[in-house]
Amino acid sequence: MTRTRSSIRVGSPPARVGLENRQAWLATPALLWILLGLVVPLTAIVVFSFWTGSSIGMSSDLTTSNYANILTSDTFWGTVRWTFRVLIIVLLSVTLLGLPVAYFTARVITVEWIRTGLIFLLFVPFLVSYIIRMITWIPLFGRAGIVNWTLTTIKVLDAPSDFLLYTSPSMITALVFLYVAFMVGPVYFKLQQLDKDLIRAAQNLGASPLRTFLTVELPLIRPGIVIGWLFVSVMIMSDFATERIVGGGLSPMLAGTVWRRAEVLLWPQASAQAVTLVILTLALASGLIRFAQLDQDL
Amino acid sequence: MVDEPEATGVVVEFEHVSRFFGEAVAVDAVSFAVGQGEFFSIIGPSGSGKTTTVRMIAGLEVPTDGTIRLFGKDVTTLAPHKRDTPMVFQSYALFPHMNLRDNVAYGLRMRRVSKSQRNARADELLELVGMDGLGERRADQLSGGQQQRVALARALATEPRVVLLDEALGALDAALRVEMQGELKRLQDQLGCSFVHVTHDQSEAIAMADRILVLNEGRVEQVGTPAEVFAKPETRFVASFVGQNNLVDAISHGSTDEGLQRVHTALGEFLVQPPTKHALEKGQPVTLVLRADALRRVTPRETPNEFEATVAGAQYSGARVTLLMEASDGTEFRMEEHESLSVGAPLRPGDYLLVGWDIGDAYLMK
Amino acid sequence: MESHPDQEDREFTRRAFLNKAGYATLGVGSLGVLLAACGSDATSTTVATTSTAAARQLQLRTMGIGTTVLDSVLTEFQTKTGIPATGTQTGFGDMVPQWIQGGYRDQWDVMEAQGAQIAPLVAAGTLQPIKVADITHWNDLLEVFRVPGAAGQDGDGHPFTQIYTKAARDSGRLDEVWVVPTVWNGDTIGYRTDLIDEKLTSYGALWDPKYQGKVALFNSSLRAPMEVLATFVTAGEYQTEGTIGNPSKADVDFAIDFLIERKAEGQFRLLWDDFGAAIELLDTGEVSLMNAWEPIVREVAARGKPAVYATVKEGYNMWFHGIVLSAESQNYDAAVEYANFWHEGFAPAVVANQGYITPTPSVAQSALKGADSPVEGVNAWDYWYDGKGRDRGSVNDIASSAAWWWQFPDESEYLNSRWQDFVAS
């Protein structure tokens, strides 16, 4: 089955191609690659989304009914609301969790190689496949898992808890731990970049550590935070498996509903949902970017 | 924040202050005091501990040992934001996310001064440093000199009793630096606050300082007025670091009837004013300090102190030229003279000169 | 290929039942082969060519799920017939798409398809019929597969109607089929007897508030909704407009609304997708009961956990897999040989311990009597076919108690959309 998960590739900006500028042609393979890898599938998905999902295979009879069905579906909008609710909770959590981690690493650890090592460690889980990372959740948090075993052994619980797995909170927890590194990374690098003299200046102008953080460091690392939000948001919007593997499949997220449509071969319907998902994600991303820029002007 | 100062007249006081970074000693048992209204420069080569010293005044570094007092109060471990010791940085360190007015008003904002009051004060200060009307600008729209003026205004906004300058003029070009030096002195006279100024540039210290502290490898080499430090270095290090001094190894060789000290050197035998503090024994090794600008071309027997040397090279700096000379035994030394002396007869490497100095222009150092 | 009359038979909506692509599984040791069926990527098992060359070399290239595309079976087939055989294991949900959308069907001669997959394959014109006369043991097939109106068929005549071509049925000649059945079984619910202290005899246990939060449902619109209908029809509390296996929109609404209601009460712990994960769920006691596949329960029991596959009063959710022949295949004779081979003793004995049953028990009986069962000293025939081991009686008991056969409902798109409502509710 063709995977419908789309990916966003970032390439060099389009080069000015003129007869006098022969080097520009060097960008051609990259442009072709972007064209093949991004534009073609995306175009195909947009086209399919207007086709008719007939009995066997798609027919190219154009219809807007796929969109009409989505836009009038309570189930779809319920999923949209749920996805954004989860997204907001996850963004808040990765911020509250990731900021102190980044701050601790960048400010408290003074030895360069330990700092670099810690940041590297954060990304070690990403050396194994996504599925493996998610599946390790089960032996950790299942009824027979390590956490339940520990809690029952030390008598915190009388019996293993079902709450730790296949629930919305467990799914959200998994998403937070899965993606927190993408929050820590940009914030850490922004903190590293920050001129230490600015902090010294604030302090000896009378700013307490907290006010230094709030009035100087936080505004200056905000682009890092927004980039972290952007990463995490895009990944959550395209995450179709965590809700199934850890969440139990009964609290679907947007990407998962696209996948569910695709796996029962309702491709035009899946395409229409995918296009809607892409639009929602782009709107979210541009909102975040605008937020970051707006703030720099304040 | 430090309470009203005691009427001691001493603003900053270091008592045997040391700072270790692991095994490394950055500052080693340093003691000094900065008086009210004084412009105090700390000079030394890089790594001498001068930045650590000034940061300890601000509380940005905490001493490993010793006591620091501000206005008579022990502040050794007091947090920086409670000290009111604003600093002007070499990097200017203007907050890039604020406009100039907000930068200048930052210290007042931290003291919870109302917005209208602090903005008025910020505009006043911007005017004081010649930046009036630019409050809405951002730091990245300014030249280095303009940024430094704003940084200074920001440091002065809370009317501190002491302002710290950490290589504050180091990033400016020579002309701007001179202009800013004058500006700083003017502001100091106007405001009456003390400045503690760190620099590696001795000319900057000469131009501005009331007193200079010379640091080397974390230790105090000498404290004194610019005249004292430059005219009478107390240690070989100071002598080699400040001014353009030629240090010549010498051996004391008794006195003349006129009470002048006779010394032997590889360049010959010379007559020098004896040290005032202590008499030298015969055969005692000393250092003969010859300021570059005290050396001059002489005619034979014009002065008792003369030797032959050849020209090795020349450095021009405005109207002055520093000649690199090589004595007959290979000793290298510098001689500074007015450029006009070479007009019409340009010196070339290898040219032979007879060099000497007047008795009062050199001195001996143990 | 000429358009076959069956292609206009009825309006089929494309669909697949399971899904699996994109899913890995937890390691399940001895069931590695089964796992491959549930994994995302097709894995290939190739049997070395040892055949004597014929004028035009026949070959057999088969694809299907890992419980039927088996190395040992292909090796034995090749040894016996001299026809080189290659097998590709793929996910259940990937089989039909690979033939219909993928354009890959020229790479295979046969697919070991499930009954409900036949209709879309036929409608898409991807199959060629097989002549009944070429199937050696056709008349030894259980009657439910080959005799119209035989006991055990559901209201729409499944599986009989799924097997014969429309032409063969309409003419009454019954001379050609789209599929030759090779294995079958009836699905029900699996549970842990140590976690549930009663003997379960109804799908109703899945909705019983006693087991709130202890139930896993298979993530397919073709199971739980039908099980709901079966529960209520048997209890006399609901009358379907359509049939259980082919429900009307109103029937679908009834079943889905009930499921949504039960979900809101917290009845269901999760939806399971993956064979290996399902084994873990029951093995670790993550859930106490689930609408399972028999191999899942067999594996959990083999690991020493007290798990049984229930006998239910509503009747079973019946299914079969069989050989279908690609419209583009040049290896008709090889496909026929392969189908015949499945009816004889070797293959049925291999799959017996998964709980899979041959449609030709009389042909395979002697071989099964010589094969081992999970219990020492009891042969596979006695254990699986004669009811000495199976919790739910003999093969004949199962064959005669179908509640519905897996099929492709007329309202499948509606069913699927309502199933999504349930999932997202």
Structure description:
The complex is a heterotrimer of chains A (298), B (366) and C (425). Chain A is 68% helix and 1% strand. The model of chain A is unreliable at 1-19 (pLDDT under 50). Chain A has a two-stranded antiparallel ribbon with strand order 1-2. Chain A contains 14 helices and 2 strands; from the N terminus they run αββααααααααααααα. Chain A is globular, with a radius of gyration of 23 Å. Chain C has 2 domains: 5-185 and 317-394, Periplasmic binding protein-like II (D-Maltodextrin-Binding Protein, domain 2), CATH 3.40.190; 186-316 and 406-424, Periplasmic binding protein-like II (D-Maltodextrin-Binding Protein, domain 2, 3-Layer(aba) Sandwich), CATH 3.40.190.10. By secondary structure, chain C is an alpha/beta fold. Chain C is globular. The A-B interface holds A 195, 197-198, 200-209, 211-212, 215-216, 219-220, 296 and B 1, 55, 58-60, 79-87, 89, 91, 93, 95-97, 106-107, 109-111, 154-155, 158, 164.
Number of helical segments with 4 or more residues of chain B: 8
Quick check: average pLDDT of chain B? 87
Q: Largest sheet of chain B, described in full? A: 6 strands, mixed
* Pattern of helices and strands of chain A: HEEHHHHHHHHHHHHH
* N-to-C series of helices and strands of chain B: EEEHEEEHHHEHEHEEHHEEEEEEEEEE
- What share of the residues of chain A lie within helices? 55-70%
The separation of the N and C termini of chain B measures: 45 Å
Keywords:
heterotrimer, B: about 375 residues, Rossmann fold, OB fold (Dihydrolipoamide Acetyltransferase, E2P), six-stranded mixed beta sheet, 8 helices, disordered N terminus, C: about 425 residues, alpha/beta, D-Maltodextrin-Binding Protein, domain 2, 2 domains, twelve-stranded mixed beta sheet, two-stranded antiparallel ribbon
